[in-house]
UniProtKB/TrEMBL annotation:
Family stated for the protein in its record: Belongs to the ALG6/ALG8 glucosyltransferase family.
Intracellular or extracellular location(s): Endoplasmic reticulum membrane
Species annotation: Coccomyxa subellipsoidea (strain C-169)
GO molecular function, one term: dolichyl pyrophosphate Man9GlcNAc2 alpha-1,3-glucosyltransferase activity
Membrane topology: Multi-pass membrane protein
Pathway: Protein modification; protein glycosylation
Main location class: endoplasmic reticulum
GO cellular component, one term: endoplasmic reticulum membrane
Presence of the UniProt keyword Transferase in the record: yes
Sequence intervals crossing the membrane: 117-136, 236-257, 332-350, 394-413, 433-452, 464-486
The protein, known as: Alpha-1,3-glucosyltransferase
Pfam families, per the entry: Alg6_Alg8 (PF03155)
The keyword rRNA-binding is annotated on this UniProt entry: no
Origin organism lineage: Eukaryota, Viridiplantae, Chlorophyta, core chlorophytes, Trebouxiophyceae
Keywords: Endoplasmic reticulum, Glycosyltransferase, Membrane, Transferase, Transmembrane, Transmembrane helix
Amino acid sequence: MLMRALGDHAATLLIIAVSLLIRLGVGLHSYSGAGLPPRYGDYEAQRHWMEVTVHLPIQDWYKNTTDNNLDYWGLDYPPISAYQSWLYGKAIQHAEPEAIALLISRGYETSSSKTTMRWSVVISDILVYIPAVLACRRAFLKDATAEQRAWMLFAALLQPAAVLIDHGHFQYNGISLGFAAGAAAAVATGKEMLGSALFCLSLNHKQMSMYYAPAFFAHLLGRCLQRPTFLSKVGAVARLGFVVCATFACVWGPFLVPPSRAVGVLSRLAPLRRGLFEDYVANFWCATSPLIKWKQLFTQQELVRLCAGATLLTLLPAVVQQIRSPSEKGLLLCMASSAFSFFLFSYQVHEKSILLALLPVTLLAPELPALAAWLPAVAAFSVYPLLKKDGLSLAYVALLLLWAAFTLPAQANRTAVTGRTWMHGLTSCGLPLIFRTSVGLALGVHAAAAVLEPPKRLPYIFDALITALSFLHFAAAALYVQILMWRQGHEKSQ
């Protein structure tokens, strides 16, 4: 009702303004590793990368030297993250040089430097993520109502997990996610070469964007195969291949000579030495580890192969569907399906990687209103052990209450863009009951953790319960997205 009364432009400005205010509000809370020497946390990692990139020559950014001890938060993201660290580091150096002084600024946490660091994440969203979401809205919701367009914008900009992780815990996921969203928007509007270049930028900002690579590959290959002649098919593939190679060459240029330098950077990006999983991540391997001791049963090499096989097997149906029948919304569904496969089954998954599955689901919010309302809440619940450790419990509760107040009640009677929601079948089977059960279980775990002492033999039992419960939700969502993909492809072919 409010969005209809405001109008499209006013609603857009209001949602963006609210999303920025909430980001700034979350930034007033604690962050990863605050006041916890000797290594602190992700906040310190980002600050340290600024210190390294500003003071050291580019050939030493990923290299273990006297001034760059890689055991202390060595750079382990691709070059665009390093360039971003250099750019923000230069700005912070101008404002407060002590914040990134070489070797002597570890754990630097003045209020002014923290404010500057927090603003750098907000500015990243303003420059990359928010414009990309707006581009997706234009590309995918051409025939939508103002209310549906507002709902999509709200879902993409205010889903709690992304806000809490980037602006609470402290990360710059909005940049890589923004490039990926911009790539999807470009491809959907026929700008396939631009879309390929933007996705390469996403991949070169954070390697976890690889979760989307099968979806973009399948969709773009499917489009190329729809060309009328063999030569036109080959030409289309060649043009995209050239764009990919040229983009990578531009990004990696400073690291390509000598070739050993590029190999050194690549070795920093592969997380194989870190084990199957860390902490409590709501994927298959972690959720089943209390029953099956994967790390004891298999060697590291065997686990890597096992994870790769399971990931490829589960993402294959979505890839095949997009090669056979590529479509605009099919691309977003394939991105979600591929991201779920990687999150649930690949090697060395971080709990924050669930953001990659959330992005395409929220971009499809008018088509999948119930899933777009429910899944972000589950995702925030799944990362609560991380948020609790960072001192973000209050922000977590506040954002979930805000999310529930504005999304869950409104979804019962919401219709999709097409006038017939793909969620209709699930809704008629008792979606309100599913919601109530899901919320009840989550509240039950939180209540038990608040009032009960965990057994001495199982000190992390409540974190394990959060992991197991979230995994069941994500597995069900992944299966449902696969079903939607094939149903959408079948409807398109008729």
